[in-house]
Specification:
Blueprint lengths: L12 E3 L3 E4 L6 H12 L3 E3 H9 L3 H8 L1 H17 L4 E3 L8 H10 L1 E6 L2 H8 L13 H16 L4 E4 L6 H13 L5 E3 L2
Helix pairs in contact: 1-8, 2-4, 3-4, 4-5
């Protein structure tokens, strides 16, 4: 028997534990996360949106009012709560995976999948957005390049990695993510 999602399409499988999408801003974590959850027939949550909902203000406002350390502490609290809720797809902000405690929690309770995108692709996706507090600098592309260089060694610690391709659609990238997850039956049980 084929398992189908709410729209009647065949589901790709069943998550055994949470999958946490990590990577730079603009790597596609939210878009791919939503599509992946739909294809797997499971829940999706964006940790930044959950933080904004809890704080009743935007990430940019939290940064401006309380600073980055305050934001990072709230981010860890929310991530812990989201992981506790069981198998689902979670997209995180670009800095969430940098905290050793967050990496340990994700490793213990879920699986991290790094959406690895190069600087040109990231810049193309974020350059027109004003919602990125870390890019509110005199040289936003230079800032993005510096952040990518600093963060890459940490992102490389993720259990799973998918290199983002500039020409791939959300659907194609999601299919590639499912293929990556399917190689790990402890993470994704494929439907027959």
């Amino acid at each position: 028997m084929t398992v189908r999602d709410s729209a009647g399409a065949p589901r790709a499988g069943r998550l055994r534990r949470p999958v946490v999408l990590v990577g730079m801003m603009g790597s596609g974590k939210t878009a791919i996360g939503r599509a992946l959850a739909a294809r797997l027939g499971c829940g999706f949550v964006d940790s930044d949106a959950a933080i904004e909902e809890a704080a009743k203000c935007s990430i940019a406002e939290i940064f401006a009012r309380n600073g980055e350390p305050f934001f990072r502490a709230r981010e860890s609290e929310v991530l812990s709560r989201l992981l506790d809720a069981g198998p689902r797809v979670i997209s995180t902000g670009g800095g969430a995976y940098l905290a050793p405690a967050n990496r340990a929690l994700i490793s213990q309770m879920g699986a991290a999948l790094w959406l690895d995108a190069d600087l040109d692709l990231l810049w193309e996706r974020v350059r027109h957005k004003s919602t990125r507090p870390l890019l509110r600098t005199a040289d936003p592309r230079g800032t993005l390049a510096r952040l990518l260089e600093e963060r890459r060694p940490v992102y490389e610690q993720a259990e799973l990695r998918l290199v983002a391709q500039a020409g791939d659609s959300i659907d194609r990238t999601t299919s590639r993510v499912i293929e990556t997850l399917a190689a790990r039956p402890d993470i994704l049980e494929r439907h027959r």
